[in-house]
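Exam revision sheet. Question 4 asks you to relate a sequence to its structure. Input first:
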Amino acid sequence: MARTLELRVGAAGDALDRFEAAWNRVAEGRRLAPLRVLTLQDLPLLLRTLTPARWALMQALRSSSPTSIYELAKRLHRDYKNVHTDVSRLIELGLIDRQAGEVAVAWDVVRAELRF
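Answer key, C-alpha cells:
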C-alpha cells in the first residue's frame, strides 16, 4: 500500500477538529486508522514552504536510495548550505526522513488539497 501524505491549506482549527474526531473514535472503542496530514495556514505559506527547489530535491530523493546531504547537493548541482537548509525544513515538516546520516522521502504520494 502506498504511503500517502495529505497536504492541506486551512486553519489551525482543522487539525484540532481531526484530533477531536480521533479522540472520540478511540473513546467509542473504534479502531483508529493512521491519518497523515500536514496542514499549512494558507497558500502563500505553502508556496514558501514547498518551493520548486525543495520539490526537485524530494523528486531526486524519491528516484534514488537514501543518501547524504552532501551527495544530494552534488547530484542537484546546488550549494551544500542551501540543500542542508532545505533538508532541515523538510525534515521538520515530516516530508523527508533522516536516519543514520542519510535522507530519504518518507512518502510514495503527496496529495494536496486546497480549499477556499
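Marking note for examiners. DSSP finds five helices and five strands in the chain.
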